[in-house]
Amino acid sequence: MIVRHRAGTLSRKGHLQANLRSSLGDGAAFGGMVGLGESYVGAFALAIGLGDVAAGLVASVPLVVGGLLQLISLRAVAWVGGEKPWVLLGSLTQAISFLPLVAAAVYGQLSLPVLLAIVSIYWAGGLATGPAWNTWMETVIPARLRTAFFANRSRLSQATTLAGFLVGGGLLAWFERGGQSLTGFSIMFAIAGVLRLISVGMLARHQPLLDERRLQGDPLVSESDRSMSPGQNPDDLLPLEVQPPDRPWAEDLPIVSTVVEKSSSFRLLAYLVLLQGAVQFSAPYFTPYMLQQQGFSYLSFVALISISFVSKILSMSMWVRVARRHSAARLLWIGGIGLVPLSVLWVVSQNFWYLVGVQWVTGIFWAAYELGFFLRFFEVLPKSQRTRLLTLYNFAHTSAICLGALLGGLMLQRLGTTVDAYHVLFGLSSVGRLLALFVLIGSRPVRMPIEQIRVRVLGLRVGGSLDTPVLPGMDPSGAKQPG
Known about the structure:
The protein has helices spanning 12-36, 41-47, 52-58, 63-80, 83-107, 112-127, 130-140, 143-176, 181-204, 223-226, 256-259, 263-280, 286-293, 298-325, 328-339, 345-348, 352-380, 386-415, 419-436; strands at residues 2-5, 8-11, 455-459, 466-469. By secondary structure, the chain is mainly alpha-helical. The strands form 2 sheets. A two-stranded antiparallel ribbon has the order 1-2. The chain has a two-stranded antiparallel sheet with strand order 3-4. The two termini are 41 Å apart.
């Protein structure tokens, strides 16, 4: 069916197909950028001579800037005129942030404060747009398609992230042979920036579609459109204009006390902060430990990181079945217990094939933790509050990452960047993960109301990846109840 639009005529079906293709293109390009760019920032700090502690700090501390700007973004959307311009602005900022990294790789020098500033701008452009992107996607992808579409989009993005990471490792290995690893970094960062620009172009092509709930009684829809023939799909319509989507941040942000009134919510957020603080006490320093202390090649480094990422993806379906059969709380316990010894296992042996096994197990238990946590998160929070509280969760998450990395870096600096100092760091991280579990005691299991969680991969780490949930990808009907 063809309807009038101010710019001419346009098929709703063709419009929708264009949105779907653009969103897939955005996801693919974004994943390639993550794999080639952000995932190698710590290794770049080492290559440019900034040292072990700096390599850990630049891979973690700048995230807190993005977490802070997420809170500001709840107001900034209105300042710039909507979700789309805000997301485009942040995405373009991310793309531009690669330019000084390319320049630094070419000239071979960069100070730690400047590198921290550049990476902070990168994360500011990415994390600050998260809540707006979630809401915006609800206006360009129909509800009936979102669950399956974002499942496919997530898989595509994960595949391109891994592909980008492997290509980056290959480039570094190639240039390292001639002692020109910085040339490899300059090429990688340049490609990453171009990929983000392609992502921006795909995002710019997104156009709003008609919300089915507004079909009846919408003055912008003609009488002939309301009088559809039996069985005609309302998605075949396109209004002259589309009302702006409901914005959860249009109201005042909730006082934090309203979030923590329920003990389950409080325990969940407290566990997040304590566990991530314990994990990040050592996790950012695995890169310098592998590349500097153990002398692993770039190919070995890429292989170990990739193994955990692949095992995390492959084990997700298994953990979904566990959550259905038991509960998200049970799954969170399994993941939390499994995470406790993982950092200590790096002390046992430095045999490459032993570490491959450790990384495979690491990805499996990180998948259990991540799925269990997100499911519990959405169980204890009302749907109307999810976007706002997800913003607060992201801020708490990035703050814990920053604090843990700073404390770990301080201890590593005091002990000296020796192998023994790293082993102390790994041991204390495991102790902290164990103590964090006490916060979960008393948490009651709840039947899981969500079938699956779709995520955006923001970066690759020793544990698999740094992810954030995609709210439009959740089943809008509440999904199936496990039986």
